[in-house]
Write a structure and sequence with these properties.
This protein is mainly beta. The chain contains six helices and 29 strands. The protein is globular. The two termini are 32 Å apart.
């Protein structure tokens, strides 16, 4: 498992809605930085899963297990060591060692060993678990961002490939690496394998090893600290603007992240970086794992979120499943949030007098569009309640 599931500092707008043209046997998804699929476990228990091409198996969230009827079942449990994206290295986590049947539409998958991870600490209350490639890579898989669905294909015909281009790709240990080019500026560019990562809610994230080979001294930069980057714990990265990124076609003025992590999946790998949904959502994909092929076509998404950086200059998670608000999960060094007094693990109770518990997931996905002087009521880790006012105006870079 790549266990790289990073929270984008600003929510990726859901630019797509589920269409009436969704084919039979397709798996509709909600795009909220990550790809959310609805299913059932143990035949009847509903579950909301993110699909991550950087993972193999089924994983369940710790809080979902504790709060749901699923967690009340008499599973046998053990422990296993697992690494992740953060700087803490491998950790011992609990695992379920009884079979768990999962049904997502017509896809039926049986997991033998299921790790229990702190997924909601990374993604928020709407992630009950995560599913990887073992469930869907036995057939060609259509990832249709235009209409919001995954579709396993019994066979891939020439007519299905109409409008698609075949990309240079290698499959390594059930992962998809694509030859792409990132042009930093007129003097620096990176050509090499970038990992396709539907479990990443950002644009492009470079590994620490790749970062070390770059000279960013003449570029505006923004360093961000994260409380949790995966099973591996906390970490940090730097944001900057690159001239362009070429996946199928060329996207200009792209906000790029590069990891400072010296441990975990973002430290040093055979690929130079990963490609997340803020880039991928501009394409429709067919991942033909049985034949080691990848096809892409540009879709009509005109959203340019890949050119935007954070205006509130912090990130937060909806944890109203277990708290009264949203937990600050990341913060930019020297940004307006940090200067106002925000700290990681602060609990946002209300925004402009409105309790965040009243703000639906749909409204969060569509974006709160905060601008100008914005008042936050916040509970600190000490239990003290304070008020912060942010004058939201400019992007961090």
């Amino acid at each position: 498992m790549r266990t790289i599931i990073l929270i984008s500092i600003s929510l990726l707008l859901s630019a797509f809605s589920i269409s009436a043209e969704v084919p039979e046997k397709a798996l509709p998804f909600i795009l909220d930085s990550h790809v959310y699929i609805q299913g059932t476990v143990m035949d009847t228990i509903p579950v909301s899963l993110i699909y991550d091409t950087g993972a193999d198996r089924l994983y369940m969230d710790k809080d979902y297990v504790e709060l749901s009827s699923f967690g009340k079942l008499p599973f046998r449990k053990g422990n296993a060591k697992m690494g992740g994206a953060g700087n803490d290295g491998a950790k011992t986590i609990p695992i379920i060692i009884d079979p768990i049947p999962l049904k997502m539409g017509d896809v039926i998958y049986n997991e033998k060993i299921t790790p229990i991870i702190n997924l909601r600490e990374i993604l928020g209350r709407h992630a009950d678990g995560m599913i990887g490639n073992n469930a869907v890579f036995d057939k060609p898989l259509m990832v249709n961002y235009s209409d919001g669905y995954l579709l396993p294909l019994d066979r891939l015909t020439p007519s299905m490939l109409d409008g698609y281009s075949k990309l240079p790709v290698k499959f390594n240990d059930n992962r998809v690496d694509i030859e792409c080019e990132l042009k930093i500026d007129s003097l620096q560019s990176i050509k090499g394998p970038f990992r396709l990562d539907l479990g990443c809610g950002s644009t492009v994230i470079l590994t620490n090893a790749t970062l070390k080979g770059l000279d960013l001294s003449n570029k505006p930069q923004a360093k961000c600290y994260y409380s949790n980057m995966g099973v591996g714990g906390s970490g940090s990265d730097v944001n900057f603007r690159a001239e362009s990124f070429k996946f199928l076609d060329e996207l200009d003025n792209v906000v790029i992240s590069a990891s400072y992590n010296t441990e975990g999946a973002l430290s040093d790998r055979s690929h130079v970086g990963i490609i997340g949904n803020e880039i991928l959502c501009h394409y429709d994909l067919i991942i033909d794992a049985p034949h080691n092929a990848l096809y892409a076509r540009r879709n009509s998404n005109s959203d340019n979120s890949y050119q935007k950086s954070s205006t509130i200059q912090m990130g937060y998670l909806d944890r109203t499943d277990i708290t009264d608000g949203w937990i600050v999960s990341s913060i930019y060094d020297g940004g307006i949030a940090q200067k106002a007094g925000f700290e990681i693990d602060d609990l946002i109770l209300s925004i402009n007098g409105r309790p965040v518990k009243e703000i639906s997931w749909e409204e969060q996905r569509n974006g709160l569009v905060l601008k100008g002087k914005t008042t936050y009521k916040v509970r600190k880790k000490t239990g003290e309640t304070v008020t912060y006012v942010l004058d939201i105006d400019k992007e961090i870079i």
